[in-house]
């Protein structure tokens, strides 16, 4: 089986000169070794399938399945050679885009939504679905309305994205990258490196994230506004983390 990543234009990206310093000089990865790794990962998921099947069977026998919410997701994605990288500690689409499937009472079967949500929204969503009230401040927002109606309006236009650092002596221990994601743009930078050691991708013209426009004069206004939003969301709490900032400047403005 040939991994989908091998057919992605970003796989073993031809020109890495515009990427962040930590990956700029990386050599191309060996497809054969990546194919073996991918096959091993797929095979390991058989035990997950069996565990889910056993849980569903147990709920059916107990008469509880129709009253139970089941959530299938992951804590992160994984680059499998895209941008010459293997792993999860970068803020590329491969690491950020994860599955999220929810079934349960009141959720129409087979519906889909392209709305972006975060794992921090799961707590608020499950709390609302179960009719509970949290006693602590939560940064997420419920997407229960979207589960019931895929066309329900969203509650934020900009999402904080971040990934961890292994160096606990860093200025901000625990974060290697921080950035923001909108419907059109992905923006982020290395936390302890110069401001230009990062990325800005325009998904409208570059869905595979091959052209970093971070230092492009045409995107200067976009970058400035995304950096402002990053600073706001990096130090927010509660409802302040779920904001509609409004339209971004157009490229060239």
From TrEMBL:
Q: Which domain of life is it from?
A: Bacteria
Q: Which residues form the Sulfatase N-terminal domain?
A: 40-131
Transmembrane ranges?
none
- Quote the InterPro entries the UniProt record gives: Alkaline_phosphatase_core_sf (IPR017850), Sulfatase_N (IPR000917)
Keywords assigned: Hydrolase, Transferase
Among the GO molecular function terms of this UniProt record, one is: transferase activity
UniProt-listed Pfam families = Sulfatase (PF00884)
Q: What is this protein called?
A: Sulfatase-like hydrolase/transferase
What organism is recorded for this protein? Nocardioides piscis
């Amino acid at each position: 089986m040939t991994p989908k990543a091998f057919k992605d234009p970003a796989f073993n990206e031809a020109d890495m000169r515009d990427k962040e310093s930590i990956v700029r000089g990386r050599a191309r990865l060996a497809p054969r070794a990546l194919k073996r790794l991918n096959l091993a990962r797929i095979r390991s998921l058989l035990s997950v399938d069996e565990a889910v099947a056993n849980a569903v069977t147990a709920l059916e026998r107990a008469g509880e399945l129709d009253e139970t919410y089941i959530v299938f997701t992951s804590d992160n994605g994984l680059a499998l050679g895209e941008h010459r990288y293997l792993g999860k500690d970068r803020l590329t689409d491969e690491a950020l885009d994860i599955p999220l499937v929810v079934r349960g009472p009141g959720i129409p079967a087979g519906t889909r939504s392209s709305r972006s949500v975060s794992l921090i929204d799961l707590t608020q969503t499950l709390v609302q679905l179960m009719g509970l009230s949290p006693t602590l401040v939560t940064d997420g927002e419920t997407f229960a309305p979207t589960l019931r109606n895929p066309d329900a309006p969203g509650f934020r236009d900009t999402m904080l994205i971040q990934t961890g650092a292994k160096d606990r002596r860093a200025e901000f221990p625990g974060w290697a990258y921080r950035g923001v994601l909108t419907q059109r743009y992905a923006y982020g930078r290395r936390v302890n490196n110069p401001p230009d050691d990062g990325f800005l991708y325009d998904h409208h013209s570059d869905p595979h994230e091959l052209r970093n426009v971070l230092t492009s004069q045409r995107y200067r206004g976009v970058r400035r506004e995304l950096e402002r939003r990053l600073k706001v969301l990096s130090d927010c709490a509660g409802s302040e983390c779920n904001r509609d900032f409004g339209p971004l400047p157009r490229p060239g403005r």
